Task: inverse folding
């Protein structure tokens, strides 16, 4: 099973700042890494797939990068609605599909 | 508009069974692989099972293999999850999720339902 480790567990930033979230895979997932955003009481929302492709309707301030085992989600300038939990997910080595444990992005 | 509506959740005793349904609309259901993903309270998502679009191949997480069965009825645009021999650790919100691309097992999920709560407790 491919284990995804996200860091940091919690990130405290202010609106307007740049956020950088990390996801490390225990084995090579090539580019097959996605990022989701989840707000309280809501289902996860797909933001980025295949490491760097933005899903439909996702603002350009969200970008993804990386390949192999190290990936980054960057939010260039935080908006109030961006404070949420972010999960990475790999689809290269499945089953099983696996998710990271999440990074909580909170308002400083 | 894509909609996924789960039903069938509830409280069940350990060892019991439940059947979840997911009614899909707003897209050509028969051309998309589908999955069930669960989320225990305060935890991250956990993939449970997937089924391909036309040939109905199935895949399971080890934690549910042999106890859960995924199926679909393309004529009724409905996805199912039969859950048997339920355990306390199966307690979670169960989401039905649609894959991003048709006719492919590109297991990223662009639409999710609102979830069906399953509680396993005596």
Result:
């Amino acid at each position: 099973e491919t284990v995804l480790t996200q860091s940091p567990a919690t990130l405290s930033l202010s609106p307007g700042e740049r956020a950088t979230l990390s996801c490390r895979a225990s084995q090579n997932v090539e580019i097959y890494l996605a990022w989701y955003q989840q707000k309280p009481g809501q289902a996860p929302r797909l933001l980025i797939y295949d490491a760097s492709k933005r899903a439909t309707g996702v603002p350009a301030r969200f970008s993804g990068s990386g390949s192999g085992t190290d990936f980054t989600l960057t939010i260039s300038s935080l908006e109030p609605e961006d404070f949420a939990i972010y999960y990475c997910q790999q689809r290269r080595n499945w089953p099983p599909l696996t998710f990271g444990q999440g990074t909580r992005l909170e308002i400083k | 508009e894509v909609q996924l509506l789960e039903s069938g959740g509830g409280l069940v005793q350990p060892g019991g069974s439940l059947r979840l349904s997911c009614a899909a609309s707003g897209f050509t259901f028969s051309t998309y692989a589908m999955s069930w993903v669960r989320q225990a309270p305060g935890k991250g998502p956990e993939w449970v099972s997937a089924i391909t679009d036309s040939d109905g191949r199935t895949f399971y997480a080890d934690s549910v293999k042999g106890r859960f069965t995924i199926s679909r009825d393309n004529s009724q645009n409905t996805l199912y999850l039969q859950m048997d021999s339920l355990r306390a650790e199966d307690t979670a919100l169960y989401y039905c999720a649609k894959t991003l691309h048709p006719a492919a097992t590109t297991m990223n999920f662009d639409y999710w339902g609102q979830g069906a709560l399953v509680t396993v407790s005596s």
